[in-house]
Amino acid sequence: MTTSFPMNAGDGPYSYFKNSHLQREVLDGANRMVRDAIIQKLDIKIMLSSSNTIRIADFGCSVGPNTFIAMQHVVQALKDKLLQVTNSTNNIPEFQIFFNDHVINDFNTLFQSLPIDRSYYAFGVPGTFHGRLFPSRSIHFAHSSCAIHWLSKIPKELLDEKSPAWNKGSIHYICTSNVEVVNSYVAQFEKDMEMLLNASAEEIAEGGMMVLVTPFASYTRLMIFFGSSLMDLVNELVDEADAKTLMINLRAVLEGLIINHFGSEMAEEACARTILKSEDISTWMKANYEKSCQLFVALKRK
């Protein structure tokens, strides 16, 4: 069984519920792109030919509130698309939204904070999005934001002491010459993307659509895979990000994983130290973003 590490639960000072502002900025920045995709490309007539219910899935919903904001954007865009096609506000379909995340995700916090004025029926779907979660052709619109960079498992090469990718000697591999480690992660990411897309191809109904939004996976790989529009999102995040806020955000995201590897005492110390180095981290973020842009431009020219 694959070990999973969900975002910090509850609504405390280091919870994901209270510390997911950067992910909210990603959603806000991508909102126009998601809306344009729905308005320009979604075949809503085919979707409604067999049912008066539109079923939407959000993969990697976590505990809120970002998933609710994203889903409200999607529902409103779908309503506007319907109005554009029918020129009528009669017979508005009903909406079902399936909130998906790992089985140990804090669904209690998620559903306790559901918007009271929501215009959809809410359901929870526990399980990994790297495999099938829904019946064939049952989902009309699938969405995921800030989630697909999570791998389904650690690349097996990193656990083999005889492998060139044996993960030893460095806490990170950004500046090392050992490309085998990076290549192992890239290969696993590509396998996971294939599993996700293959599963979704079975689940999404005719005329439906899938939208994936993330600036957090392998940056250059995503630029090649999804296009340069993500550069604008990441540029905005880097310009506006406060390193101290970012470190608290990362604690909400990664604390469970750090505790699993190093224990709670060391995790607490690591989080405290990163806050003290926030100015240095800000400088590093900007420098590495510029390098990523230069690399992407070079790759696009080839």
TrEMBL record:
Gene3D superfamilies assigned to the protein according to its UniProt record, in alphabetical order: Methyltransferase, alpha-helical capping domain, Vaccinia Virus protein VP39
Keyword Lyase: no
Keyword Transcription assigned: no
Keyword terms: Magnesium, Metal-binding, Methyltransferase, Transferase
Coiled-coil zones: none
GO terms assigned for molecular function: metal ion binding; S-adenosylmethionine-dependent methyltransferase activity
InterPro entries (UniProt xref): MeTrfase_7 (IPR005299), MeTrfase_capping (IPR042086), SAM-dependent_MTases_sf (IPR029063)
Gene Ontology biological-process annotations: methylation
Domain of life according to the entry: Eukaryota
Family that this chain belongs to: Belongs to the methyltransferase superfamily. Type-7 methyltransferase family.
Protein name: S-adenosylmethionine-dependent methyltransferase At5g38100
Organism of provenance: Capsicum annuum
